[in-house]
Records
---
Amino acid sequence: MKKTGKCPKCGCADVIADAKAVDRGDESFEHDMKIATFGNPGALIFKQKKETSMSAWVCASCGFVELYADEPWRINT
């Protein structure tokens, strides 16, 4: 959707671009949804976590959603 401007599922061109994906944490506090990688996943501590927030592209017709990392270079291990 991001490159073509069309939904890959139904072909509709009515796409809601760059909507923020929101998550709820402790006590229902809202924050940006994130994706993470770990440079040293086997470590007990200091796992070298790298993360970025995500944005959503939504088809206004069928509701299909694609998620994109806002800064993908930040999670490259």
Note: The chain has no helices and six strands.
---
Amino acid sequence: MLAASIPSVARAGNEEGVLVGNEAAMTGGAVTAVIDDGTATWFNPAGLAHVTRTQVDASGSATQLRVAETPELLSSASGASADGGYYELNGIPSAVTGSRQLEPGLVLAFGIFVPSAVNHTDRVRLDDVGAATPTTWHLVQQENVQQYYAGIALGWSVASNLRLGFAAFGLYRQASTVSQFFGGRAGDDGFVDGVSAISSLQSAGVGLSVGMQWEVTPGLHLGVALRSPALQLGVLRRSTFTAISASADGVFFSPGDDMGLTPRVDLVAPAQLRLGVAWRFDRGWVGIDADLSHELIIPELGLDRRWLVNVRVGGRYEVDEGVSIGAGLFTDLSPIRRIQTYGETRIDFLGGSLGFEMHTPHRMAEGEQAPTIVFSQTFALRYALGIGSIGGLLFDTTQPDDSQVSVNATRTTVHELALHVGSALEF
């Protein structure tokens, strides 16, 4: 009964909990129509056609603090409850890209991206002293999830006001959960049930992306990018657990181990359409983005996603030749339709970002391929408030053994604060 309450794989949060790249980190991600560096591989590969010089871009959310507060994560039919929550501190290398002009108007780029990462531990204890038979329940669970995308892209300037792009991605996801869950009642007629479990999953897949940027009229820019559904090509999973039950009737002990490599093709993420409009002026731009993804329901894979729309508004302004500032607002809504398992989250985030970038050109010697080499550094802060629900556990010892523990969605609040530090080199 307790073993069924423990998730077999870790559940990550929303897919884009990290603003990938320097431009996006400064402007809340509203970059589909204007992105013009190596991170266009991720947002809109058509933007690569802007590149005229070789670029190397390394950026990351150097520190991300996530604080979750979950009242009544564990609760009982008698009315007793225990609050959950955690503090999570991550160092995340969100993007590394390189781009090079093959010929005027044709640019090749590559990139590695980490759009989300989860690493936290929950520790909760519930003393149900108000029940007819007082019980104590104790849960410790650690989750670790990372997603990596490696892509190669081409950007092509078809005309002076029209650019097209194409990107191909390899996907890798790893997730692990470590759980210890025990509960029981003291006394001569007491009992104790418990399970300790370790689950892990690694999967690989592929995806494609196409994009367009069009300067409709001088200053008015339109961007469109379509990302294909993500195809999972294989899964390696392993779950090891030990269940223990002791009562006046005796002791039950059941170790188990399940491992498998599944080379099969599965659709694991929906297609995504990004639309962006931006107005460029003399020293900067302002823009608005929206992205749309369709529902995806595959019960055997635990997928139950709804139609989803997210919106981003942002802009950038060049204070002088060496300093630019940017700001933006964004939504990051959950695609989950409803809570089905313990630990699963349905949290909608609203947040903003603020940052600046410094450019330092250095003149090269006569005869060098480029007249200057340019170093840039970016610093940005991102804050997001998430409000939603999480799958908690409800205990009722008056019920038969197979229904004493059930999943109970309870409210949760999450605060995310990230410091983005990035650098780039043009030569």
Note: Confidence is low (pLDDT under 50) at residues 8-12.
---
Amino acid sequence: MGTQQMLYVALGVIIVGIAIVVGVTAFQANAIESSRNALVDDLLFFATKARSYFWKPLNLGGGNNSFEGIDIRKLSARSETANGRYYIENTTSDEVVLVGVGRVVSGRDTIRVRMRVNESTSQIEIIH
């Protein structure tokens, strides 16, 4: 009877260990997905501000139907939030490319999201 009880204890320890590993993995995956979603939300805010800049006349501090001359400081007073930091990768007269770098590390790299914004649409690209 003592051997059978030891077998049950060993089996219980193995099952609890596996449950802990699965739980930690699920939590980490959820943290990564939440960070990506937060970056996308913040980038959508910046995209709205960029479109506002695009449509404003020059005399009101806008781009007069152009994204050229746009700066991250013109979109928001802060280029860094609790979710990550944001910068403008590229601008043309028709498009601005915004990038968000998250605070959560996935593997050996940080989470990055790129958003291409033109006058009417936004295209999201998950870099990592």
Note: The chain is about 45% helix and 25% strand.
